[in-house]
Amino acid sequence: MVEASPGSEAVRLEGISKAFGSFKALDNVSVTLRYGEIHALVGENGAGKSTLMNVLYGILQPSAGRMLVGGQDVGSHWSTRDAIAHQIGMIHQHFSLVMEHSVLDNIVMPTLKWTDLAPKWGQYRERFSELSAQFGFELSPDTLVGKLSVGQRQQVEILKMLYQGAKILILDEPTAVLTPQQSDRLLEMLLQFRDRGYAVVIITHKLEHALDLADHITVLRNGRQIATVAKGEGTIADIARMMVSQEVNTAQRRSRSAVGEVVLDMDNVSLDVDGVALLDKISLQVREGEILGVAGVAGNGQSELAETIIGLQSTTAGSISIYGKELGTTSVEARRRGGIAIIPEDRHAHAVVGEMDIASNFIMGHEGEPQFSRRGILNRKNIAEFAKHCIAEFDVRTRSAETKLEFLSGGNQQKVVIGRELSANPRLIIAHEPARGLDFAATAYIRQRLVQAAEAGAGVLLISSDLDELMELSTRVVVLYCGRAVGTVDADAYDPQHFGSLMAGAEAA
Amino acid sequence: MIFDLEFVLSALRIATPLMIVALGVLIAERAGVLFLGAEGVMLCGALFGILGAVYVGDPWMGVVWGLSAGVVMGLVTAVLTVWLPTDQVVMGLAMNIAAIGLTSFIFRIAADDLQQMSPPMGWSAPGALSENPIAAFLFAVPPLAWLAVILYFVVWYMLFRSAPGLLLRSVGQNVKAARSAGINVVLVRTVALALAGGLAGLGGAALTVGWVRSFADDITAGRGFIALAAVYFGRWYPRWTLFGCLLFGLGEALALRTQVLGGNAHFYLMIPYLLTVGVLAFAERGCAPREVGKPYEQL
């Protein structure tokens, strides 16, 4: 390994391109990483940030360009083993941990040799303790990783890199899964790594993190390198402008259309599970053309509210009506056909099938409609046309409609969900955290579609933990606390103090 | 008296092929490949074992032939389910059916040479020890049974104490983690399947060369599946798998014994299979290595 003094060059990527078929995921990107510096890669979902780092980490082979690690050209046969041997470590957005193995096994595994029949477990354990102490981790080596919290799993990933002796640390969206406190702690740790002379790469779409931490920020857009900015050279607005091709209208329009008839009427709805009131006498109304916000600290009945309306959970008391017609015990299918659309909180669990193609995901739940099938036989031509139309209409970035959904970035997956739900011309849209984890272009787009749907006469129930989102989009916001609706606030008369105390249950009598 | 030493030896003889095949299945599935083709590979091993024993005239050469046939079949499995990759269930079933046809066909060609029994395999205690009942018993245990027990210790150590074992188990639990550790998943699974195939072939040879000393169409009669069941019963741990195999061996030995008591032989022969169903119904699912059955597609 070459000298690793602060400021010296760790990695130079020159003119890296990567094509998947005719789709250019990366187009002539050049980045230099230095020891003792934090380099942020920013860009929209699908801009090529992860692809670039996967190339550096040897998971993907570049179609063109060259890589210099420690000043030496690595040539064309660059594998992950080589990357690890050159002190490069990477934490993927979705962790690469074996849940059934212990913390120690996970950390040691990448450094083991196939020929080592009698590993020195005692030494590994000592080395683990030393590293833990040095960086202030508190993990027991024998705990199964599956039993750890998400924050702790990330610590295992970090320790794994350090244990390998990595000096060049790549973190892909490390804060996406963390609570604000955990993420502050992580960012502090990254600064600590920088000060100790590590080269750190952070892929993020939280621009404030990038601006706070990074010595250099590289902006990618559609696989192309838009700019590399040094610390202090740009503001959030500058970089945001570079990330998206057009100027983003950050100020959202609220639906201004006249409010019409009552679409959804919930009257004293309760849901008791094992004697715990998850929903407690909730009454609310959503009218045509209105976006009603639902706020609250997570776990105060938001999920149950969405699930009782769509029919995944049955209420224990009270009634839910759509246009005055009580839903009673009608099935989810009947409710969806009756004009209720839902954008669930967890799209992987409740909205999409990753192993199926985009077209199938677009018609899922509507496959029985005459335009998609006749007597149980799918009409492939119509489905393909519909999918093509939806891909264009909802701006899904993909090579084709036959691509498996799981290969899309999170934002594009969410656009498929939104596209499917809105194409059915619903009368009531339940949107639960519709923009969670998305970059802000996708977020702005999805919010705009919700507003348009409301303006077109649908009622929207927007359940969100993002207060800015709620205040921007909704006219009124209902606050949930312990399953009760503890207050309704006009968005125009928003007072953070008052709102905060409502969410904390201070005014719940 | 039903439960005498001869009964224990009979159970051991029956369990030996199961033990060896199950070990192969265990290795394949720990590397994340469903080895449903074990039955077919075992059948090939059974035939080639006999061929080797008869044509070379040495039962140990039969064992080598059976093992080699198994390695080849394991590699075929690797090409189909790992390199291509195709569906592991469908391919496993196809391999089993193909193996029945293939072995019966070759058996017909060689039929005249396979009329007599293959030379026996075994050893006897040296003169001084033959008087000692314990030594006599130990020498009466089939040599391949001893080999099987030793292999269990070796495989247990390799899987759970050595570095390659941890790497292999990581491949079976999470290919993403394995890949980002720089492990060549395809290579690991190919090697695992070659080992697994070799063991399944060896198990087949243990059935024909080491026990019945002749071949018949479909002689394995589902024993490969019972080995598979033993692995599930043992929750993918060697010692419990070994225990499961011995249990199945005992069941079948009991069936052979109780024929003496009268009644329909098929009823008693049914017992180990019923036992299999019962064990599978009560064995916990959900502790299988996570990647078992999932084709691995490289980026």
Automatic annotation (TrEMBL), chain B:
Signal peptide: none annotated. Keywords: Cell membrane, Membrane, Sugar transport, Transmembrane, Transmembrane helix, Transport. The keyword Methyltransferase does not apply. This is Simple sugar transport system permease protein. The chain crosses the membrane at residues 6-26, 33-56, 62-83, 90-111, 134-160, 181-209, 240-259, 265-283. InterPro entries: ABC_transp_permease. Its main location: membrane. It is found in: Cell membrane. PANTHER family: GUANOSINE ABC TRANSPORTER PERMEASE PROTEIN NUPQ, SUGAR ABC TRANSPORTER INTEGRAL MEMBRANE PROTEIN-RELATED. The keyword GTP-binding does not apply. It holds the Pfam family BPD_transp_2. It comes from the Bacteria. It is a multi-pass membrane protein.
